[in-house]
Amino acid sequence: MELTKNVGLLDRLVRVILSEILFILAFFWLGGYWQILFYFLALAILFTVHFGFCPLYWLLKIDTTKNDTKGIPRKIFVVIFILFTAIAVFGSYFSDVLTQRSFFL
After folding, report:
1. How do residues 68-78 score in pLDDT, each as one tens digit?
2. Contact, 54 vs 6, CB < 8 A?
């Protein structure tokens, strides 16, 4: 099995955001087996981002790299970067605040 890239750049950016959301959920809200599962899923998604290869895409013969020749428009890249930063900052902050209010710390 040859690991040819089948995950495009825009697909990778979306996966990074999804992975970040899973990490935040696992760290602040989940425990036990669910926490381990979410950490594992987030790491698996990050591996597909790093290598540019998704085994599920390979099985389904999906290739999102076809649109990479045009590149990502700057506006989309900026929106995704702002979304990534907002999730990291506000997601962590609100998780901490809600946790403290829930347990009266």
Report:
1. 656 666 677 67
2. yes
